[in-house]
Please model this.
Amino acid sequence: MHIDYTHTIPNNVDLEGDRTLQRALERWQPGFLGWWREMGPEGAQEFDVYLRTAVSVDQAGWAHFDYVKMPDYRWGIFLNPAEPDRRIGFGAHEGEPAWQEVPGEHRANLRRIIVTQGDTEPASVEQQRHLGLTCPSLYDLRNVFQVNVEEGRHLWAMVYLLHRYFGRDGREEADELLERRSGDVDNPRILGAFNERTPDWLAFFMFTYFTDRDGKFQLLALAESAFDPLARTTRFMLTEEGHHMYVGRNGVRRIVARTAEVMARARTDDPARARELGAIDLPTIQRYLNFHYSVTLDLFGADVSSNAATFYTTGLKGRYREPYLKDDHRLQDASYPILAVEDGRIVTREAPALNALNERLRDDFIRDTIAGVGTWNKALREQGIDYTLRVPHKAFNRKIGPLAQIRVAPDGSVLSDAEWQAGQREWLPTEEDRAFVASLMGRVVEPGRFAHWIAPPSSGINGQPVDFEYVRFG
Ligand SMILES: [Fe+2]
Ligand SMILES: [Fe+2]
Model:
């Protein structure tokens, strides 16, 4: 399915066949570009960036790489091809044909799901807009811009659904997606983690590794939706999303590798000494990890949720790998283990599986994070460093659900308030940690050069060498 780039809005949904919709989206487009100029990467609008653009939704050869000024990026509407005779795979409507229009009774819930997903896309661009000023290399600068333009395209993906299927309400929601601002006290983004700052590159890499991965799991659950246009849209978004997590995983790995190298050369395991030598010490990396991991776990929502049950039963949102799960795909009588607090202790108890679907997706996410953390530890072993980075306990630093009522250490032990206060500096990034990391951030833009605190990648983008001129400043 080739994408038509001859139109104002590139698309593979035959936009030209629906003039009203086309005009509505063409009215939204200047607002989007205005938002991009105001809230997109700071001071970078005139750079020529070696970006990939989707030219096809086929798995093989879907992307094209070339220099583009970001405001000229061809944001558009790309859906995976329709599966002939697609059937609903779960819930009360299992086996019925997938919906090509929104059933009236599910309109409000579907709109809310689409808006919540859509809101995260521009939010992350806003969170990351200052990073270009302190890039550790041209390679990394290009990568953050690539992530940013693709998050912009994901916003287009959700706005298309709102305009096409939700009439006037949908158009209003699409406008509001351009009005909220990450971290704004009066008009913030919808979800907590998307109002946090991404102040430095360690935070950026942790964000793309952990928080973009929440996006992956939400998209995978929506890729099963009975509402076929949503399923097809999210399937294509997942193709782009893979790169974002790759950037995060390798970014952290390169930082860890440099720290390990510096420690090995100086024969030290003293974090203060590692800092003196210009590396980010391992306890600081662990604290950033603890923060981004726990904030991301909250994004999956309450452990027991009647909304989650409704979304599943009505066919709006499925489970991770739904077609491969060997059960009845209805879950009326099934149960699922969740963590609960009893007498100030964490215990496991069974909850109705339908209500525990957020928790289940959170557990799927947790399993998926392990591989990356493993590659980070491998980078330590390669230098003979005896230190292990670990994801904290699921109950650590939670702000949503019953686990928010207790204080828990990264190892899972329940703490008094006083113990939490005393331990917090050891477990979460302090102002001083953030100031130290910020002190390392400087702008490195000579092709092939890298900031001292991060190792170069092992290969470049799209077969180009590592010292390729990924960004031209004109
Ligand atoms: Fe995205
Ligand atoms: Fe992403």
Q: What stands out?
A: Strands lie at 48-54, 63-69, 335-342, 345-352, 407-408, 414-415, 471-472. Residues 79 and 380 are 41 Å apart (CA to CA).
